[in-house]
Amino acid sequence: MSHSVCCFLHPFYDDGCINRLIDEYNKHKKLVIRFDFDNTIFDCHNNGQCYAQVIDILKKCKELGFILCLFTAELRPEWIDWKVKYCEHFGIKPDYINESPLLKGTKKPFFNLLLDDRAGLQSAFLILQEVIEYAEKEQIGDNIQTIKENTHS
C-alpha cells in the first residue's frame, strides 16, 4: 500500500496538538483523557495482541491526576461492570463511563485527547507521551519548590 505524502496545513498538526495540550495542562493542572476499551486496552478478538503500552500511559495519566473517561459501545450493565473491574485491576479506574465530565446537557463529549484503535491511536499515544513527559517535569519542579519553601519557613 502506498501513501502519498503531502503537507498538512492545519494548526493542530502533532506539534500544535502537543503545545495546545501543554497550555491546557498549565491552565488546569489536569487533562481529560477518553479511552476506548475493545482493541485499545483489551484484546477483544483474542488475537494475542498486547495493549500494555496504552495501559501504562493511562496509569501515568491517573498518577498525574488526569481525568480518565472510559468510552465503550457496551450497553449491558454486567459487561460495563466487568470492563470497569478490568480497568481497576490495572490501576486505571475510570472517573467517568460514557459521560462527559464538563459538558453536561449536550451530546458532544468533552475530552482533551482520545485513545481509540479506530481514531489514530498511535498518533494520540505519541502526543500524550510528550505531554506526560512535560507534566512529570512540571510536577517534579513544583515538588522541589515546595520543599525549598518548607525548609526556609
Cα(first) to Cα(last) distance is 64 Å
Tell me, what's the shape?
A: globular
**Low-pLDDT residue spans:** none
Strands side by side in the biggest sheet: 3-2-1-4
Describe the structure.
The chain is an alpha/beta fold and 153 residues long. 46% of the residues lie in helices and 10% in strands. The protein has 4 helices and 4 strands; from the N terminus they run αβαβαββα. It has helices at residues 14-28, 52-63, 77-89, 121-151, and strands at residues 32-36, 67-71, 96-97, 113-115. It has a 4-stranded parallel β-sheet. Helix 3 (77-89) links the parallel strand 2 (67-71) and strand 3 (96-97). Helix 1 (14-28) runs parallel beside helix 4 and helix 2 (52-63) packs parallel to helix 4. The protein is globular, with a radius of gyration of 18 Å. The model has no long low-confidence stretch (mean pLDDT 88).
List strands and helices in order, with pairings.
Blueprint: H1 14-28, E1 32-36, H2 52-63, E2 67-71, H3 77-89, E3 96-97, E4 113-115, H4 121-151
Parallel strand pairs: 1-2, 1-4, 2-3
Helix pairs in contact: 1-4, 2-4
Quick synopsis:
This protein is of the alpha/beta class and about 150 residues long.
